[in-house]
Amino acid sequence: ARALAATGEMDVAVLTSRLEGRGDAGQSAGFEVLEPISSWSASQLGPALEAARSWKPDIVHVQHPSQGYDGPLPLLLGPAVRWRLGLPVGLTLHEPVGVNLDLPWMTASVRSANAIVVVRHTFRALVNWKVRWMIAGMDLCFIPNATTLPQVERTPALMRAVRDRYNAGARPLVAYFGFVYPSRGVHQLFQIADPRRHYLVIVGGKLDEAAAYHDEVSALAQQDNWKSACTMAGFLPGEQAAEVLACADAVVLSFLGGGGSWNTSIHGARLQGTFVLTTSREARGYDREQNVYYAEPGGVAEMRQALARHLGTRQAP
Question: Are 253 and 280 in contact (CB under 8 A)?
Fold first, then answer.
């Protein structure tokens, strides 16, 4: 929204659910924030449509799926906007796994779209046959993901401040940034890093749909050997999250299904010049130009060795 507004070629509004403390989140960035709904449940379709009708957009963009939705409204919004308000709809499909769910509503959502954006160039091959049938004959616009974080300067003063914030001492800092979901393999960090040698900072909050997994990770952080070597930092503002990644000696993202160019967390860490250890089903080994090591998904021993070898490696962001 900020980038679109900054072009000066269009007016931009974000439709979202009400959140205490958000305040004038969009005003300083040049866009409006519409908060007519209390949740993403189907009962909120009327207020959402009324907000769109009142604002009078020329096009409505719906992103699906996205962590944080607490109901099916994103799937209902596209068809309702297209067929009840007569407005063109753009649809971004981020996760192949997610679009395999809720098939009847997903079909209506996809079929209502005038344009579909994907962030993986192999999207068609990644979805099941039902979804492949659903998008047959439709053009998919591939737009690579980018970082959601700002770039910060890694200064000695900032490094001291971050270390003091988490009581890390002089130990190398190993960070994780992203949602705490089972598919992200956050639990593997406690096998990859060593509490006797590293200090672990996990930046990512607790979401309702993954509450049990977050509790599992929190329990690992409270083990005797990790109590004084790990901080569960929760959700952080973008600037603070970027500071952690910039001051870290390594960012470990052990995705169970393999990561890639669609992962904004990888881009966010690379933007700071920090060494990134992640997984992939396509790439393998250390990419010097990217300063990224790609391990086999689930390859804890390989990731442990890579961390020891490349810890602290930096390059110009």
Answer: no
pTM over 0.85: no
DSSP summary character for residue 172: P
Structure tokens at 39: 């949740």
Separation CA 138–CA 110 (nearest Å): 9
Phi-psi region of 223 (alpha: psi -120 to 50; beta: other; left: phi over 0): beta
Task: Enter the DSSP assignment of 57.
Answer: -
Rounded Cα distance, 133 and 94, in Å:
18
Cβ contact 151:317 at 8 Å = yes
Tokens read off for 91: 């649809």
Within the chain, how many helices (H) and strands (E) appear?
12, 13
Do 274 and 173 touch, CB atoms closer than 8 A?
A: no
**How many Å apart are CA 273 and CA 284, to the nearest integer?**
20
pLDDT tens-place string over residues 165-207: 999 999 999 999 998 989 999 999 999 999 999 999 999 988 8
Ranges of residues in the chain whose predicted pLDDT is under 50 = 99-100
Query: How many angstroms separate the CA atoms of 17 and 37, rounded?
Result: 5
Nearest alpha-carbon partner for 317 in 115, 133, 181, 153: 153
Gyration radius of the chain over CA positions: 21
For residue 236, the Cα-to-chain-centroid distance in whole angstroms is 13
Is the C-alpha dihedral spanning 179, 182, 187, 191 positive or negative? Answer: negative
Paired with 173 in beta bridges are 199
Q: Is 18 helix (H, G, I), strand (E, B) or coil?
A: coil
Asked if residues 87 and 61 have their Cβ atoms less than 8 Å apart, the reply is: no
- Cis omega (within 30 of 0) for bond into 65: yes
